């Protein structure tokens, strides 16, 4: 079941820039004001994970793509995993939660090459350690 | 293609459950009409004009086509009527008898909401284990009888997950007749993990059994409903009740109505007195919770102690060995439902699901149930997070609410099955479009 919300072309080009061009570290996606389209809200190349968390508001839903970089255990070198975030805090409005949950598939399917996915409703679920734990499995 | 401009389509949302049918406008946060699904009916065979004997009417059901009077709504089954039978079209969350469905829906939409369904697209909900024939039949009723311009049927599991803002979730829905555990992954039900049982019926049966049988400290309790009681006198707690029955009514009361009315007494007793201990069964803990006072319509009143009160809720989580041995078809309790649902899922997925448990349905508001569930689950899984809306309306009508939001989205309108499409493609389009 889906909401029928479309994905703006800009989302794809921003994602290509992140994936292929490595021009940005993360992208924040949201819905257009009339709730008909997924749009890019922010592109950033800050490597600070905390800054990324600041961009996930306390009471509004977002999607995000983060180019997660981590050190593989045993000194096997650095790994990168492009991680998809569905951010839907408990305090968000129910209509927004519904919209984001039912529209996620449209965005997710158009982004090719996502290595891990995180569904978060509270900050502890998107904290650096929990995400690291998730992406480093099977890396 | 359907073309509805903008958000101006005031769609209707109809959520049919075993205890009530919820109907309302999409975009609202509570349903406008909440009508009991149980209905009353009397039958008159065309030949008999004054005195109707029930046995006659029953025999004539197939051949003579007796005139059937339906009593629906708030004043339907709850008013006592001579020889009125009571019935419910639902079984285990599924519609098994479609005959009363159109009168019931029509009562909600036309009589209670006073709107004309032929002017509004209608979104209907279904349980995850609904059959293909059932959903097609529902589409047929909507298009052919109610002449709706557009129709969609959506899964309550997915709607509950979406209403909690989750694309993937383990939805635990406890209703009046069925309890279900539905793994939802990216907006789709994982059918192999779907589990349901008639657990709530067992809990009610247990409570009934507890009440109507005497214990060492109190006599058996009569569950006469207030409709059949002419007068009563106040008595002290635990004393035999002093009441007079309405003898004129008792003789003309049908067995089905009596059963329904007694079950309602049991239900009310459960809602006010019963509970579940939050840390697993322990008689001492249960006893410490203290007694609670409750008075039945007969005037009988009693302080029910903690053990009696909490043994009822315990049926949601554990079944005694004796019960299991004597009943081969015992419905699965919650932990069993959850573990069988999870074992059918990928190990990778289990963690995601346990981190996103959504609790829904009126039965989940049983006092202490959410806490106990959290305790049970944390014992077996490392990262458990239960989403249980504190707002009782959001919890009881989670499925309706999800449907209300979905149907109100401007972008959702391209997914409606329009009347033209129905006429062109027929039944097949329902399964094609509503996945």
From TrEMBL, chain A:
Keywords: Actin-binding. GO terms for molecular function: actin binding. Gene3D superfamilies: Severin (3.40.20.10). It comes from the Eukaryota. It holds the Pfam family Cofilin_ADF. PANTHER family: COFILIN-RELATED. This is Cofilin. It comes from Obba rivulosa.
From TrEMBL, chain B:
PANTHER family: ACTIN (PTHR11937). This is Actin-like protein Arp4p. CDD domains: ASKHA_NBD_Arp4_ACTL6-like (cd13395). Belongs to the actin family. Transmembrane segments: none annotated.
